[in-house]
Design brief:
The complex is a heterodimer of chains A (about 200) and B (about 260). Chain A has a single domain, classed as Class I glutamine amidotransferase (GATase) domain (Rossmann fold). Helix content of chain A is about 25%, strand content about 30%. Chain A has five helices and twelve strands. A nine-stranded mixed β-sheet of chain A has the order 2-1-3-4-12-11-10-7-8. The longest helix of chain A is centred in the C-terminal third of the chain and has 14 residues. Chain B has an eight-stranded parallel barrel with strand order 1-4-5-6-7-10-11-12, surrounded by five helices. At the A-B interface, helix 1, strand 7, strand 8 and helix 5 of A face helix 2, helix 3 and helix 5 of B.
C-alpha cells in the first residue's frame, strides 16, 4: 500500500513535531512545508496553531501567501486538518487580536470564553466532545475525551459536528467539504486523538 | 464537563558519571532518588492513562537548549502522545519558541519571574496565556508563606495570593504550586493553601508535594478547586499507578477520566 502523504504547514507557531510523529505513527509520510507554491505529492494538509490568534495570523501571512493557501483549499480542495488556533484562523475575526483578519474561509468570529461561576479559564485539560453525527469511528450522541488548551472559542454553527461545554457550549469539531477542524489537540489526546487523525485520513481517503 | 487531572512529574538531571539524563524524585527538594530512564517511565505513565506530564530540567544549566535536552524532548514527542509542560531554566522568549516547537504544549517559568516578571506578559502576548505556566515553590510556617527563589537559594516572605494575582494579570495561564516541606514526605497535600489559592483565582491551579495515598488526592479534589494534582514519588515508588489511583478517585465521585 502506498503511504499517505501529509504536508504540515510550518510557520513557527505550533507544535509541529508532535503532529508529525503522530502521523508517522499511523504509517504516513510527513513533509514539513515551508513553501506551498508547488505542492507535489501531498494528499493531506495540516494547519497547526499554538499561540495567540494575532501571532499565528501574522506568522502565517509572513511565511505563506494567503491567497495561494486559499486557492489550494477552496479550489484544489486538498483535504485539510486544522488544529486549535489553526481552526480559529479559518474564521473572520478574533476577540483576541481584533486588529487582524482571519482567513475568512468560514463565517465565524472567535470569542473569549465567558466567565461563569468557579470555572477556570484557560480551559485546560480533558473534556468531553459530543458528536452530532457519526464520523468514522466516532458515534453520534456519544462522548469522547480530548485534550484542550485554550481561552477562545468558536460558537456552535451549522458546520459544527462535535461540541463541548465549559463556561458555555462551543464547537470542538467543525467539518465542511474538504476541511476538518478541531479545537482540541488530537496529537496529545492519546488513543482518541490517534483515532481522530485516523478518521481524518479515512474520511478523505 | 472538564475533568480533574493526574499529572506525574519528572525531574530530570544529568548524571556526570553516566553521561545521560535521568529521571529522579526528591525529598524536600534535597535528597534525590534516581528512578531511571525518563522516556521509558513516561511511556509507562502513558499506558496507565496519566492525563499530562510535567518535565523539569533541574541542572544548573546556562541554556535549556542544550543538545541533550533537545534529544530528550524530541524522544518524548516521538513516543508520548500526551500533553507536556516543560520547564527548568527558561529565561528568554526564544526558549518558549524552542520548547513549543520541539514538543512542549506549555512552558513553565520559575526563577526568572523574580528577575523579570514581564517575560510572562511577553510570552502570553505571543503564544497565548494557555501555554504560560508559572511554577511556584513554597513553604508554610504557621500562617506565613515563603516562596523559594531557586537561583538565589533564598526564601521570600510574601502575600501569596496577591503576588499570584499580579502574575495572572501579566498573563499567566496556569499555576503549579509545590510545597517544599511536603515534597517526598507522603504526609498529604497542603489543602489549606490549595483551597485558598484555587478558590480565589480564575486560572487553573495544580498542587504538588506530599501525596502518600490515593485518599490524599480525593481529599484535595473534594475540598478545593484545584484542577490537577502532580506527583513524582507517588507514581514512581508506590504500588499505585495512575490507573489504580484514578479508579479510586472516580469511585469517590470526582469527575476524572477513566
Amino acid at each position: 500500500m502506498l503511504k499517505k502523504k501529509i504536508g504540515i504547514i510550518s510557520y513557527k507557531a505550533g507544535n509541529i513535531y508532535s503532529i508529525q510523529k503522530s502521523f508517522e505513527y499511523l504509517g504516513c509520510e510527513v513533509s514539513i512545508l515551508q513553501n506551498i507554491n508547488k505542492l507535489k505529492n501531498i494528499d493531506y494538509l495540516v494547519l497547526p496553531g499554538v499561540g495567540s490568534f494575532g501571532h499565528c495570523v501574522k506568522q502565517l501571512s509572513k511565511n505563506f501567501s494567503l491567497s495561494i493557501f486559499k486557492k489550494i483549499i477552496l479550489k484544489d480542495q486538498i483535504p485539510l486538518l486544522c488544529i486549535c488556533v489553526g481552526m480559529q484562523m479559518l474564521g473572520h475575526l478574533s476577540e483576541e487580536s481584533p486588529e487582524l483578519n482571519g482567513l475568512k474561509i468560514f463565517n465565524f468570529t472567535i470569542f473569549k470564553m465567558k466567565e461563569k461561576n468557579q470555572l477556570k479559564i484557560p480551559h485546560v485539560g480533558w473534556n468531553d466532545v459530543t458528536l452530532k453525527k457519526n464520523f468514522e469511528f466516532f458515534k453520534k450522541n456519544y462522548k469522547y475525551d480530548f485534550y484542550f488548551d485554550h481561552s477562545y472559542i468558536v460558537k456552535e454553527d451549522k458546520f459544527c459536528i462535535g461540541f463541548s461545554r465549559h463556561t458555555e457550549k462551543f464547537s470542538s469539531i467543525i467539518q465542511s467539504k474538504n476541511i476538518l477542524a478541531c479545537q482540541f489537540h488530537p496529537e496529545k489526546s492519546q488513543e482518541n486523538g490517534i483515532n481522530f487523525l485516523k478518521a481524518f485520513l479515512n474520511f478523505y481517503a | 464537563m472538564l475533568k480533574r487531572r493526574l499529572i506525574p512529574k519528572l525531574l530530570i538531571k544529568n548524571l556526570k558519571n553516566k553521561k545521560s539524563l535521568v529521571f529522579f524524585t526528591s525529598e524536600n527538594f534535597k535528597k534525590f532518588k534516581i528512578v531511571g530512564d525518563p522516556v521509558s517511565q513516561a511511556k509507562i505513565y502513558q499506558s496507565q492513562r496519566a492525563d499530562e506530564l510535567i518535565i523539569f530540567f533541574c541542572d544548573k544549566q546556562t541554556n535549556i537548549k542544550n543538545t541533550e535536552n533537545i534529544e530528550l524532548i524530541k524522544k518524548f514527542s516521538k513516543e508520548i502522545f500526551m500533553p507536556l509542560t516543560i520547564g527548568g531554566g527558561v529565561k528568554k522568549i526564544s526558549d518558549f519558541e524552542f520548547l513549543l516547537e520541539t514538543g512542549a504544549d506549555k512552558v513553565s517559568v520559575n526563577s526568572i519571574i523574580f528577575e523579570r516578571p514581564k517575560i510572562i506578559n511577553e510570552a502570553a502576548k505571543k503564544y497565548g496565556s494557555q501555554c504560560v505556566v508559572v511554577s511556584i515553590d513554597f513553604i508554610q510556617e504557621k500562617k506565613k508563606i515563603f516562596i523559594y527563589d531557586s537561583k538565589k537559594k533564598s526564601f521570600i516572605s510574601i502575600d501569596l495570593l496577591s503576588y499570584i494575582k499580579k502574575l495572572v494579570d501579566l498573563g499567566a495561564g496556569e499555576l503549579v504550586l509545590t510545597d517544599i516541606n511536603r515534597d517526598g514526605k507522603n504526609t498529604g497535600l497542603n489543602i489549606e493553601v490549595a483551597k485558598f489559592v484555587s478558590e480565589n483565582l480564575k486560572i487553573p491551579v495544580i498542587i504538588s508535594g506530599g501525596c502518600g495515598v490515593a485518599q490524599d488526592f480525593i481529599n484535595c479534589f473534594k475540598q478545593t478547586e484545584v484542577q490537577g494534582i502532580s506527583a513524582g514519588n507517588f507514581f514512581s515508588f508506590k504500588d499505585q499507578n495512575p490507573f489504580q489511583t484514578r479508579s479510586q478517585i472516580s469511585n469517590a465521585g470526582i469527575n476524572i477520566r477513566i
